[in-house]
Amino acid sequence: MTVAEQVATILLAAAATMVTRFLPFVAFGGRRETPAIVTYLGRVLPGAIFAILVAYCLRDVDLAAAPHGAPELIAIAVVVALHLWRRNMLLSIAGGTVTYMLLVQLAFS
What we know:
Elements: H1 3-28, H2 36-57, H3 70-86, H4 89-107
Pfam family, one: AzlD
InterPro entries: Brnchd-chn_aa_trnsp_AzlD
Transmembrane segments: 6-28, 40-58, 64-82, 89-108
């Protein structure tokens, strides 16, 4: 890729990002009320997306072979416990990730 192509790619990516960030404010900003479907989607999509991410992360876990999914289950338990304790998503995700990585690298290697 030439330098001109790299610059064009970066500019297009930046423009696309800005459009997707500003479009909701242009469409629903001001005095207009947010449509009910948008409010509903804003309420239900975060949980649905996390459920899909969990399923995606666990898709290759082989429960028949050692360690039988133990690192994944322990990390999930840590995520749930941290979230119930502190209600902080960043802490929950980081704690679960660190737990999983330590288990895979040290305990179940």
